[in-house]
C-alpha cells in the first residue's frame, strides 16, 4: 500500500491558503477543495492551524496576483494521472521520463538505444527518489561542512544524484534493484566520457529489470494507479531469430573493451544469488506455443504463475536446454588450484584444450560467450579438467600426495 504523505501542505500552498483567508470570501470547505488531490488529503485542522498561526507562522501570505494566477489555472492537473502539475511535479516527471526511456528504446531506426535508455531511466529514478524523500520530509540536498545548503554555480540548491539517494539509510528500494541501478549508473558514467559502440544486447536484461523495478517501486510507494503497464504495451516484432542467427548477431556486435572490463569487474563482485535476482537482470525465454482453445490462439504472451506445475515444467526444459552452468577459463583454473593443484595455470589449461580439441562444438565442452572473442566452458569440461589433474597430480601439486591415503 502506498503511504500517505506526512506533510499535508507545502510551503507555497500554505502561502496561498493565507492569501485566501485574508480575502475573507472562502469557507474552510472551499479551501480544502482547492488543495485536496489524489496523492493526499487535507483536513480542517490544517486550515485552523494556519488561521490561528499555531503553526506555519513564519510563512508569508502569497501576493494577491499569485493567488489570482493560482485560481485562474486551477485545477492544474495531469490528465493521465490526476496529479497536480505543480504539487506532484517530481512524480509526473518520473513517470514521463521512464515512458520516454522505453519509447526511445523501442523506437525503430535508432542505433544507440541502450545509451539513450540508460541516461533517461536514471533521470526517471532520480525524480522518483526525490519525490519519495520529499514526501517523507527528508532533506535531499547536499550540505557544506558548516551545515548550509550547497549551491550550484548558478546559485540553485544542489540536490542528491541517484547514487546518493540509493545509499541513504531510508532508501526503500530492494537490494537487487539497487544493484541493477548501480550497474546502469556505472555504464552511464563510462558512456558519458568515452565513445562506445552498440551495447544493447549486453545490457538488455538489466534494462528490462530496470523497467519492471521502476513500475513496482512507483506503485508500492505512491499507488497502483500510477503504474505504467497500461501506457506501455508489449512491443511487436517483425522477425524471429533462431539460436544460430542470435549467435551471429552477438559476434557481429563487438563490445568495447573498456565496457566489457567494467561489466566483468561489476559481475565478479556479485554473489550467485545477486546475479540470479530478477531485480538485477530480468531474463525471459520465448517459446512457440500452440493454444489448446481457439479463443486463446491469438494470445501472444502467456504469464504462468510461479510455483505452478506448468512453471516447473517450463523451468525444467529451459534449464536443461538453455541455461547450462558456464565457466570462464580463469574460473576453471581457480577451481583446480583451490582443489589442490596450484601448478595448473593458464598455459596448462590452454595446452589441454588444444590437445583435446575442446572448442570443437561436436565435443560439447563449451560455446562462444556473450561477446566477441569470449568462450565459456560447461560443467562437462570442468569434470574433464579435474580428471586430467587427478591423473597428473604430480605435475600440478606442490608436493607428492598419496590420493589413496
From TrEMBL:
Residues 89-269 form the DUF3644 domain. Pfam families: DUF3644 (PF12358). This is DUF3644 domain-containing protein.
Amino acid at each position: 500500500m502506498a503511504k500517505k504523505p506526512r506533510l499535508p501542505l507545502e510551503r507555497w500552498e500554505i502561502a496561498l491558503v493565507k492569501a485566501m483567508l485574508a480575502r475573507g470570501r472562502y469557507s474552510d470547505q472551499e479551501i480544502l477543495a482547492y488543495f485536496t488531490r489524489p496523492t493526499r488529503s487535507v483536513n480542517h485542522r490544517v486550515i485552523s492551524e494556519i488561521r490561528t498561526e499555531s503553526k506555519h507562522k513564519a510563512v508569508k501570505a502569497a501576493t494577491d496576483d499569485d493567488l489570482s494566477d493560482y485560481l485562474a489555472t486551477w485545477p492544474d492537473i495531469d490528465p493521465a494521472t490526476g496529479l497536480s502539475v505543480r504539487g506532484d511535479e517530481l512524480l509526473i516527471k518520473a513517470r514521463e521520463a521512464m515512458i520516454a526511456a522505453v519509447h526511445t528504446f523501442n523506437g525503430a531506426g535508432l542505433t544507440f538505444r541502450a545509451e539513450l535508455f540508460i541516461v533517461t531511466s536514471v533521470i526517471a529514478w532520480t525524480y522518483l527518489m526525490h519525490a519519495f524523500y520529499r514526501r517523507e520530509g527528508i532533506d535531499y540536498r547536499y550540505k557544506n561542512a558548516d551545515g548550509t545548503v550547497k549551491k550550484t554555480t548558478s546559485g540553485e540548491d544542489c540536490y542528491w544524484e541517484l547514487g546518493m539517494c540509493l545509499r541513504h539509510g531510508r532508501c526503500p528500494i530492494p537490494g537487487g534493484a539497487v544493484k541493477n541501478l548501480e550497474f546502469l549508473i556505472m555504464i552511464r558514467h563510462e558512456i558519458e566520457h568515452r565513445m562506445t559502440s552498440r551495447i544493447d544486447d549486453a545490457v538488455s536484461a538489466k534494462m528490462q529489470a530496470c523497467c519492471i523495478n521502476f513500475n513496482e517501486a512507483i506503485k508500492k510507494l505512491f499507488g497502483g494507479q500510477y503504474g505504467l503497464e497500461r501506457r506501455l504495451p508489449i512491443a511487436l516484432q517483425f522477425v524471429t531469430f533462431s539460436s544460430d542467427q542470435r549467435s551471429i548477431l552477438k559476434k557481429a556486435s563487438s563490445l568495447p573493451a573498456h565496457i566489457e572490463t567494467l561489466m566483468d569487474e561489476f559481475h565478479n563482485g556479485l554473489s550467485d544469488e545477486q546475479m540470479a535476482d530478477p531485480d538485477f537482470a530480468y531474463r525471459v525465454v520465448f517459446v512457440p506455443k500452440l493454444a489448446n482453445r481457439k479463443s486463446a490462439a491469438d494470445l501472444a504472451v502467456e504469464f504462468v504463475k510461479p510455483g505452478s506445475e506448468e512453471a516447473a515444467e517450463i523451468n525444467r526444459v529451459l534449464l536443461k536446454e538453455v541455461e547450462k552452468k558456464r565457466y570462464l577459463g580463469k574460473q576453471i583454473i581457480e577451481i583446480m588450484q583451490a582443489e589442490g593443484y596450484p601448478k595448473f595455470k593458464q598455459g596448462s589449461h590452454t595446452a589441454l584444450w588444444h590437445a583435446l580439441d575442446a572448442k570443437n562444438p561436436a565435443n560439447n565442452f563449451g560455446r562462444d560467450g556473450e561477446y566477441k572473442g569470449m568462450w565459456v566452458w560447461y560443467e562437462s569440461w570442468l569434470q574433464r579438467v579435474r580428471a586430467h589433474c587427478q591423473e597428473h597430480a604430480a605435475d600440478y601439486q606442490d608436493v607428492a600426495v598419496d590420493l589413496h591415503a
